Here is the input.
Amino acid sequence: MPFCRVGDLQVHYRIVGEGPPLVLIMGLSGDLTWWEPLVEELERDFKLVLFDNRGSGLTEMPEGKYSIPMFANDTAGLMACLGIPQAHVFGVSMGGMIAQELVLHYPDRVDRLVLGCTHSGGEGFTMPSAEVVQKMTLTRGRAQEEIARQTMSILFASDFMQENPDTVEAMVRRFVDNPTPRKPFTQQFWAAMGHNCHERLPKIRKPTLLLTGDQDVLIPPQNAETLRARIPGSRLAYVEDAGHVFFIEAPKRVARLLKEHLLQN
Here is the structure.
């Protein structure tokens, strides 16, 4: 298993495929294995850089306060460690927040940008419903499998869950077998809650595609509309009948959208 030393952090990563580099940034508590359905659709066209954020997967879980700019610094440091001066970047959920900070702090590192199921923070953030927030946060004292099933109900579209039980069960098992410890999960959660790029979004001058599942209840699609209004020249595409993890639910459709955006002249 390959690792890169980025400052004081040992970062777990994988490189898959050939072509122009594409850095994939995962969201809250997810690890690089969450990308597997999409990797199968992209590895023939891109050199994919997959990694675990600090506090997730096999990357170290240091003590102290986390922040989205800190995650962006980790990502830029990993690219430098791997000898990748510039790449396309696709971040989802908290990973989309990291991608916003990355392009704002390190614009020369980013070629084309894709932001999925994410928000700008600040006054541009449309909150999920109270019911969804409770499912996300009220986990203390519950068994890991119960937490996993509760989480699945807010990650996947309800119709997808009914029609694709094997995919959902595989994710449940992933949660149960490799749980993110509570402390680093909480550190990541508060980092995401502190995210705010809203006023700075007009400074993004990279070709930007926004993706969201039209059934996303965790980060409602209104957030993508706000991003579209704030990022000059950005384009928004909805993934129909998909929820927050649209890249798992519809990898072929998402791969097509990514290739159209990232490989155009």
Q: What stands out?
A: Residues 68-81 form the longest helix (14 residues).
